[in-house]
Each structure stands twice: as structure tokens, then as C-alpha cells.
Amino acid sequence: MISIQDYKLTIEPFLYQLKIKGRYEISTSTPLTTKSIFANYRFPNQLIKKLYLIKSKDPCKRSINEGLFCQVYENIGYLNLASDSYFKREIKSYEEVPIEITFDLDTTNFNPSPSLIDETNLLSIGTYLRYKNSFYIEGDKNVNKRVKIPTYQVIDNGNHYQSYDHIEFSISESARGSLISVKKKDNLLINNASIEIGGRNIPITQKESNGWIHISPKSFEDLKGSDSFKGKLLLLFKNQGYTFNVSNSYSLDERTSHYRIQPIFKAFPKNLGEFKSVSF
User: Fold this and answer.
1) How far apart are CA 143 and CA 179, in angstroms?
2) In this structure, what are the phi and psi dihedrals at residue 94, rounded to the nearest 5 degrees?
3) At residue 36, does pLDDT exceed 50?
């Protein structure tokens, strides 16, 4: 006999991937040997195959049957977002991405009974990941804005818990001073800042003051005759790359700003020192 009496998935962005950590409490009539059972994770466009369950030292939360052996197992897998059209499309509102988890036994160094093989093959967990990849500014039309970024998600026996963090921006109310400012924060790197006015990129400066990084034109002569600008930043925040885009208008007819943050689905240098940036 074999059954799953408890499971927990922790999913978090990791560069161009989603890192998936599984935890399972499995009860069996006979103890399983090391690396004898593995899981397969099926997403809409990808199948992560043969992720071995490694025995943990953690105890089971409870025992459903005193006559069974309960053991905690864990595994880690990675879902590649860079080559997956399902995840690379712009998703502005949260979608429920289906996940199917199935199990199998590795009989290379293990000789289970046919009934145990059949029962293991019938084990299945159906759940979903709440996912979006296009983030807009929270709040009203104040100058200072906060973007809520999901950091990790926990799926605990079908119950979903989402953790968030924030990146704070300040956009100038007028075409003078620093046009874009970003509040300093742990685990946040900035690179490739650019400002476009009248269809051309202008030289910029980047300075730190009072806990903020301020991005300004080198010469405010570049702003003459223009009542709008576009800005772009490359951000690395908690192991995930993002692009931040802003377009801002100061005209009397339209005093509006538009903001968007989206993940970058590509590999970054293994040594983050190679990510030429201002480090907070």
C-alpha cells in the first residue's frame, strides 16, 4: 500500500525559471529504499520528468495508520520560462496554471511488488499555480508609486499562499530635477537606465541621495521644447530580472504617467558581479 497524506509546493522566480520545491509525506506498508520513487510535474507546455524524492529528516505531521511507515520526501525542479510560449506571453491578470503531479518507482535497485508499482502509478495530485508577469503601479495618481512583486507562492494541500515585496519609484511632476527615482532596497540591482525625449536617447546621470537613486538628464537643455519623456530600467530583484518602462506627459491637456514592469526571461551571469550595476 502507498498513499500521499500531505504535500506542499513552494514556487519562486529564479532568473529565467521557476524554482519548484516539493515536500511530500508518503505512507507505505513497507519502507522504500533511497531514490526509489520520483515525481513528474506536468505544466501546459512542459513536462519536468523524473525528479527523485529524497528522504528528509523531518517527521511526518501525523500518522493516519499506525501500521504504515510514514516518511517525508523532498525534491527540487526548475520550470524553464525562457523557451515556453505559455509563460512568455504578457499576462496582466492572475491566471490559474494547471499542474499535474504523478509518481513512479525506480526499480533499478529496488524490487517492489507489482501491486505497489500499480498503486504508485495511480497516485496523482492536481493543483494550479497563480501566475502573472506584467505588473502595474499600485495606488492613485500620486508621484510616488509602489509596484507589488510576487516573491514566492506556497501550495499547501491545495491551499494557496502568496508572498509579495515592493519596489518604490518616484516620477518627477515636472520636466526638471530627477525624472525617475528608485528607492534603495536589499536584493535590488539597477542597470541600463535610459531616457528618451523626442525619439532620441539623451545622456543621463545617476546619483544617490536620501535613500533613493535619482536618474536625471546630464543637461536640462535636452528637455527644452518637450513636455514628455520615456524611461527604461533593467532591474534584478531577488534573482529575477525585470524591465521597468515609464512614459510621462507634462502637457496641460494630459498630465499622465504609464508604468509597467515585466520579467526578463533570459540567463544572467552566474557571478552577479558581472551584472554592471548600482548595488543597493
Assistant:
1) 11
2) -60, 135
3) yes
| Distance (Å, whole) CA 280 – CA 269 | 18
Residue-wise pLDDT tens digits, 221-245: 777 767 777 888 888 888 778 888 8
Distance (Å) of CA 23 to CA 34, 62, 111:
16, 15, 24
Assigned architecture for domain 2-131 = Sandwich (2.60)
Give the other-Cβ count within 10 Å of 251's Cβ: 10
CA–CA separation, 261 vs 250, rounded Å?
A: 22
- What is the distance of C-alpha 20 from the center of its chain? 11
Grid coordinates representing 203? 545622456
**How far lies 153's CA from each of 24, 45, 69, 98, 237, in Å?**
17, 20, 30, 14, 16
**What are the sequence ranges of the domains in the chain?**
2-131, 144-279
